[in-house]
Design goal:
Pfam families: DDE_5
Structural class: alpha+beta
Protein name: SRSO17 transposase
Distance between the termini: 35 Å
Mean pLDDT: 90
Oligomer: single chain
InterPro entries: IS701-like (IPR039365), IS701-like_DDE_dom (IPR038721)
Order of helices and strands: HHHHHEEEHHHEHEEEHEEEEHHH
Domain Transposase IS701-like DDE: 24-234
Shape: globular
Radius of gyration: 22 Å
Helix content: 40-55%
Largest sheet: 11 strands, mixed
Number of domains: 2
Organism: Actinokineospora auranticolor
Number of strands: 11
Number of helices: 13
Strand content: 15-25%
């Protein structure tokens, strides 16, 4: 879990870009007052200092929108956040050369038990919400375009809790890993976006179950897997072998790979073609070492012809996403929503995604102008 950074004193904002982005993204909202409030909310996320309470966000508007009006707009209004996300994803894909959709988990500690989805999960010392964000990622820039909140069974099976949080009937039980897959498939397969691989950490997941869903949707993947993941080497017999042993067997084939911003000698990789136990489709397992004495990372992909260097380059996007989360997204208040409704949470994180896009693109514009 990323720790909370010191809150920035307002993110950079290019006013022309802000107006253009809000005009395009919020054009799908049915009423003029909703479009105005959406822009006020995003401006508040960008400019208010410290924790992004509704009071602070409303204060940034100089009285144009009341605290009560802004609270109602996010927590109790009827506007649909889904079209806003789809338009945002298409906008970002049009201005940034998206190389992959990166899935990033997010834990949101909570003091009480009433926020939608809050649970005391395994290993957690206090109540928390668990969510995943899907990021458009490239070396040129990263930004969240969609989110999914994991809903534990204690929320789905309790009719009273479910009703108070207005959890929709179609929301069903899924594992944490299933939550991540569902979120990424919505972006990668349902919004008419460029076909790009999905990258995420599957070390605690059932790799076979994850791969099955992505292949059924025709979406390529690059998964970080555990060293004990059982795989079958193509041409090496029918036995199942742990990933660490398969990679150790090709260790002598390690070659330097280029990673932007690092010396190529620091990063080496080797690959072996494998199958999942009982499967027929071929995958490539890549071992990636950073430094001489380090243990390798293990990455599994159905992009068999891509080559180790290309797959290592894609895997490094996870670090860029983590960096932007700590530098921008967390400071924009993605974990600051205190309402209790399912739609309210989704509206808030959607508007944070818009604020992130404004901040990241403004940095580029202002840097170029300077």
């Amino acid at each position: 879990m990323t720790t909370h950074p010191r809150r920035p004193r307002g993110a950079p904002v290019d006013d022309a870009l802000f107006a253009e982005l809000c005009g395009e993204l919020f054009g799908c909202l049915p009423r003029v007052d909703q479009r105005v409030k959406a822009a006020v909310y995003v401006r508040g996320l960008l400019c208010a200092e410290g924790r992004k309470s509704v009071r602070k966000l409303a204060a940034v508007s100089g009285g144009a929108v009341s605290e009560q009006g802004l609270h109602h707009f996010v927590s109790e209004s009827t506007w649909d956040w889904r079209p806003v996300r789809a338009v945002l994803a298409r906008y970002v894909a049009g201005v940034v050369p998206v190389r992959a959709w990166v899935v990033r988990p997010m834990v949101i500690p909570k003091a009480g038990e009433h926020s939608v989805g809050v649970d005391r999960g395994v290993g957690q010392l206090r109540n928390a919400q668990y969510a995943v964000g899907v990021w458009a990622a490239s070396e040129a820039g990263c930004g969240p375009v969609s989110w999914r909140l994991h809903l534990p069974r204690v929320w789905l099976d309790d009719r009273d809790r479910r009703s108070r949080a207005a959890i929709p009937e179609e929301a069903g039980a899924e594992t944490v890993e299933g939550c991540a897959v569902s979120a990424s498939l919505e972006v990668a397969g349902a919004w008419g976006l460029p076909s790009r691989p999905v990258v995420f950490d599957a070390r605690s997941a059932s790799v076979a179950a994850v791969v099955r869903r992505f292949r059924a949707a025709g979406v390529p993947v690059l998964l970080r897997v555990g060293s004990a993941t059982r795989l079958v080497r193509v041409g090496g017999g029918a036995g199942e072998v742990a990933a660490r042993h398969l990679v150790a067997g090709v260790r002598h084939l390690r070659r330097p790979v280029r990673v932007p911003g690092a010396r190529s000698a620091e990063h080496t990789a080797a690959a072996v073609v494998v199958r999942l136990p009982g499967g027929t489709c071929e995958f490539v397992l890549v071992g990636h070492w950073v430094g001489r004495g380090a243990q390798p990372e293990y990455w599994l992909s159905d992009l068999v012809t891509a080559g180790p260097a290309a797959l290592v380059s894609l895997s490094r996007l996870v670090g860029l996403v983590d960096g932007d989360f700590g530098r921008l997204t967390d400071g924009l208040g993605v974990r600051d929503y205190v309402g209790r409704s399912y739609d309210g949470w989704h509206r808030h994180v959607t508007l944070v995604s818009v604020a992130h896009a404004v901040a990241a693109l403004s940095e580029a514009v202002l840097s170029y102008a300077g």
